[in-house]
Design goal:
This protein folds into 2 domains: 2-197, Rossmann fold, CATH 3.40.50.720; 212-429, NAD(P)-binding Rossmann-like Domain (Rossmann fold, 3-Layer(aba) Sandwich), CATH 3.40.50. The termini are far apart. It is of the alpha/beta class. The chain contains 17 helices and 14 strands. It is 44% helix and 14% strand. The strands form 3 sheets. It has a 6-stranded parallel beta sheet, sandwiched between helices. Strands 11-10-9-12-13-14 form a 6-stranded parallel beta sheet.
Length: 434
């Protein structure tokens, strides 16, 4: 099949490369000429494990292309995906659909023959109806069907998630669209992922509901961790105790500094707005968003306490800036609130991250960036682990202790064992553990 992917950001690029690897002919389209030039030269605009090699292989095989020319490639496509950004709208948190509707108008002018227009962007309930109205109004003669096909990709594991999905959700009740989407995903048949067809609005809501539920699990275990701190329990024991119940599951029950990234923060806010718009307020999700915001801001207080109540004039070493490992994504990363809080308290910040420092420099230009964890720790008054990169799980702790001015470690991801750290002579603080 011929696929046009409108938008060559994270979702569009990963999805386009994977569809090409299935054997389809895919063109990823973008308005950013610099991005298209970089992609044509084989340079990735994002860090995602395995993506560069996957793109290169499919470009070489003649199945994956990059272009600024939407009209030509949409006209030739059997399926056109909308994979543009839907950032939170300033002021109210609602999803900004400017790029989605602009893409719909441009697609309307270009489609020829029977075409599936599929929305991969995360969009509020009813967006597919408006996309259909836009295209139908512009092209009453066109033979097209608008479907919802949300993505469920985890940054850092996106290729695996696309090729071995838990489920593929498709919002359409049209027989022709069902057949076309089934053909598109047919290469996954050996893995037998459930292809779930539902109404378009049901599919749009499923994406938001999934992210809000996972955000709720994170926020729940973080609040349990705070209670563990007060009563002397170990949150990791509690998480294992409840996670082995298959009605709950163990995933997303890891206490930490709060969730961030490109999805959970904006999608929970958008879902809250949808609930208010339709007169069905989502009080649990409202509480989750507020609790997570407070938590990220409170992390500087934990560092303050570990440093004896003051960080004025002290140097704090930060390990990990991206919101999670295996990505360079800094969007709503907990490190942002932590660093801002510590700077406001008078601290000097040195930081290291394996991948995200280029992105971080644009957001936090005034702090010092280091070449490795040990240079970051050198003569610092405390070391704070913010992102659980594998490289931080097996640090040379003897070298870290020697490098630090004071042997203070604040582990916001619980990647070390408390008893081991204390035996090595560290003043060690973690989350929800005695």
């Amino acid at each position: 099949m011929h696929v046009a992917m409108v938008g060559s950001g994270y979702v569009g690029l990963v999805s386009g490369a994977c569809f090409a690897d299935f054997g389809h002919v895919v063109t990823c389209i973008d308005k950013d000429s610099g991005r298209i030039e970089e992609l044509q030269a084989g340079r990735m605009p994002i860090f995602e494990p395995g993506l560069e090699a996957l793109v290169a292989a499919n470009v070489k095989a003649g199945r994956l292309f990059f272009s600024l020319d939407l009209a030509t490639h949409v006209a030739a496509a059997d399926v056109v995906f909308i994979a543009v950004g839907t950032p939170s709208r300033r002021g109210d948190g609602h999803a900004d659909l400017t790029y989605v509707y602009q893409a719909a108008r441009e697609i309307a002018a270009a489609i020829e023959g029977f075409t599936i227009v599929a929305t991969k962007s995360t969009v509020p309930v009813g967006t597919g109806d408006e996309i259909e109205r836009i295209i139908r109004e512009a092209r009453p003669d066109a033979d097209f069907i608008v479907v919802s096909n949300p993505e469920f990709l985890r940054e850092g594991a996106a290729i695996s998630d696309f090729k071995r999905p838990d489920r593929i959700v498709v919002g359409t009740e049209d027989a022709r669209a069902r057949e076309a989407i089934s053909d598109l995903y047919r290469p996954l048949n050996l893995n037998q992922p459930p292809l779930i067809f539902m109404s378009r609005r049901g599919s749009e809501l499923t994406k938001y509901a999934a992210n809000a539920f996972l955000a709720t699990k994170i926020t729940f275990i973080n609040e349990i961790a705070d209670l563990c701190d007060k009563v002397g329990a170990d949150v990791q024991d509690v998480a294992r105790g409840i996670g082995l119940d298959n009605r709950i599951g163990s995933k997303f029950l890891h206490a930490g500094p709060g969730y961030g990234g490109s999805c959970f923060p904006k999608d929970t806010l958008a879902l809250i707005q949808i609930g208010q718009e339709f007169g069905a307020p989502l009080r649990i999700v409202e509480t989750v968003a507020a609790s997570n915001d407070r938590r990220k801001k409170s992390m500087s207080d934990r560092v303050l306490s570990a440093c004896g109540g003051s960080v004025t004039g002290k140097t704090i070493a930060i390990l990990g800036l991206a919101f999670k490992p295996n990505t360079d994504d800094m969007r709503d990363a907990p490190s942002l609130d932590l660093v801002r809080g510590l700077v406001a308290l008078g601290a000097h910040i040195r930081a290291y991250d394996p991948e995200s420092m280029e992105q971080a420099r644009m957001l936090m230009p005034a702090i010092t960036y280091c070449e490795d964890p040990y240079g970051c720790a050198q003569s610092a008054d405390a070391l704070v682990i913010v992102t659980e990169w594998d490289a931080f799980r097996a640090l040379d702790l003897g070298r870290i202790k020697t490098s630090l001015k004071e042997p203070v470690v604040v582990d916001l991801r619980n990647i070390y064992r408390s008893e081991d750290m204390r035996r090595r002579g560290f003043r060690y603080t973690s989350i929800g553990r005695p």
